[in-house]
Please model this.
Amino acid sequence: MGKAVAFRQQVKRGWAALYRHLAAPRQAGDLVVLTYHSILPDETFSTPPDVFARQLEYLVERFRLVSLDAWLQRAEGGGADQRPAALVSFDDGYENFFRFAFPLLQKFEVPALLFITTGLVTGGCGVAARLGMYGHLPPLSWGQLRELQAGGVTIGSHTHRHCDLGQATRAEAAEELTYSKKILEDQLEAPIKFFAYPWGYRQNIGRETPSLLREAGYLAACSSLWGKNTAATDPYLLRRVRVDAWDTPEDFRAKVEGAWDFIGLYQKFS
Ligand SMILES: [Zn+2]
Model:
């Protein structure tokens, strides 16, 4: 971990220590969506598999792990299980999901939502250059994606070119949403219902994108706006909680339980 990253993490821990006393505990109707990118041993920006396994173990103990479909339909209901709901999501579509994340998700019987940048799978449109710290990681193949889908992983779209929708014209944004959806549906022979905005902060979403998503036939979209979701949350602006490679077990718990939700407030007022 670099010095700047370590410093920022320390500052956030400080705020979390204060905010944990203000945050309302997660409740039965709440959904916490976790954001991951890469699960890989010995790689600076990737969560190591053994750490991921411990995180899943913790989630399974404290939360009801749900699919987004079930949560949106309130079909899972929870019944006697009054624990809050959690959902594990992955962005971009790296091959290490297949090797390291998928076996652990299966072991702990945790549903997952995997957002694919289709241009990364098809190749040839310069996507890797827009993936920053993850640009060197190889992508999943169509064969692996079919296996994942057959194994119960929900596949969603993350645009075709990992496009900043806050900078795109209406026509470009519409093309990214419909084209990536069509490629995935053709390859996987199943409806693609969910979407995640690349980068996902307010400035990367674009004012009209939620309505374009609705028109394109998507049912919900995940952002990087921080926090939990309730029945009142706009399904096209679902909030998430980002897990970083350098999170300690305490950081992870604090993020999941709500102590880091001050970031959502900061995002709102900055
Ligand atoms: Zn991304």
Remarks:
- Strands lie at 31-36, 64-65, 85-92, 112-116, 154-157, 194-196, 220-226, 238-242.
- The first helix runs from residue 3 to 19.
